[in-house]
Structure formats: structure tokens, C-alpha cells
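ok so for the tutorial part 2 we go from a plain amino acid sequence to predicted C-alpha cells. step 1 is just haveing the sequence, like this:
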Amino acid sequence: MGMALVILGCAVGLAGALWLLALAFREHIGWGVGALLFAPVLALFAVLHWDRAQTPALLNLAGLALAAIGVFMGAAPMREAG
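step 2 — the prediction. this is what the C-alpha cells look like for a chain of 82 residues:
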């Protein structure tokens, strides 16, 4: 179950990140190139353009949360065994 959540979370997070990247390129090529080369630029873009970037940013965060939950679910049996 944990691995399935990690995979689902990564897919959801990737969809949100690609959506944000597309919005960044639509805003200005500088935003898009900056986001490709330095990941925090994408987060800055999302904050500064929250009115348009809200949905993909939250989708990205939801994917991160799902993946983190999956990782912790997968790590729980290892902690008990050790």
C-alpha cells in the first residue's frame, strides 16, 4: 500500500509541477527557463501569481503529501523489525 501511495503521489505531484511550468512559460519565457533551471523559482512563481497558480500548486503539494505518507507507511514495518 505504501509503494502505491508513493507512485500515485509522484504522478499527482508531477502533473501539478508540469501545469505550473506551463503557466510560467505562458507568463514569460524568463519565468519558464528560470523554473526549469532552478526549482525554487517555480515556487516563487506560484506565490507571486497565486490567482492563476493556486490549483496546480495545491495539486503539487497534495502529491508531495501522498508520497510522504506512502514513504512513512513503507518505513513503519522496517522500524518494528529493527
